[in-house]
């Protein structure tokens, strides 16, 4: 009977171990399934965000292209204005040089006028 009891206890122990293993196995599978579901939800959320950002990028692309074109036009306009300004500086320098020359001619003419006025005065005194 002792051996029968040992066999019964061993069988019960094996059955208990199998039951515990089955319960633990179910829990492990349930945790894995729950983890997989959560990860699937996170993946879905990230994909949704990626799609939203991709859509927004597509929406913003025409604006970016338009601004790039406007910037290129402004740069071209600035270059044109710079060339025009340089032409005006050159012309101003030429006019300034002409003004200096005219000033020198004015001084010569005034000097000549004074000299002739002095001669006229000298000649009047002799009259």
Could you describe the 3D structure shown?
The protein has 1 helix and no strands. The protein has 127 residues and is mostly helical. The protein is rod-shaped. It starts with a helix and ends with a helix. The model has no long low-confidence stretch (mean pLDDT 94).
Set out the fold topology.
Elements: H1 2-126
Kindly report the oligomeric state of this protein. Answer: single chain
Q: Strand count, sense and closure of the main sheet?
A: none
Instruction: Give the fraction of residues assigned to helices.
Output: over 70%
Q: How many helices?
A: 1
Shape: rod-shaped
Mean pLDDT: 94
Quick take:
98% of the residues lie in helices and 0% in strands. With 127 residues, it is mainly α.
Task: List the defining traits of the structure above.
mainly alpha, 127 residues, 0% strand, rod-shaped
């Amino acid at each position: 009977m002792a051996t029968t009891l040992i066999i019964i206890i061993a069988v019960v122990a094996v059955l208990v171990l199998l039951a515990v293993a089955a319960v633990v196995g179910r829990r492990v599978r349930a945790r894995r399934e729950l983890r997989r579901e959560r990860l699937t939800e996170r993946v879905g959320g990230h994909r949704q965000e990626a799609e939203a950002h991709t859509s927004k990028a597509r929406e913003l692309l025409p604006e970016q292209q338009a601004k790039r074109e406007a910037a290129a036009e402004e740069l071209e306009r600035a270059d044109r204005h710079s060339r025009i300004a340089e032409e005006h500086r050159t012309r101003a320098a030429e006019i300034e040089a002409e003004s200096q020359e005219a000033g020198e001619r004015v001084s010569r003419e005034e000097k000549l006028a004074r000299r002739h006025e002095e001669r006229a005065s000298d000649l009047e005194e002799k009259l």
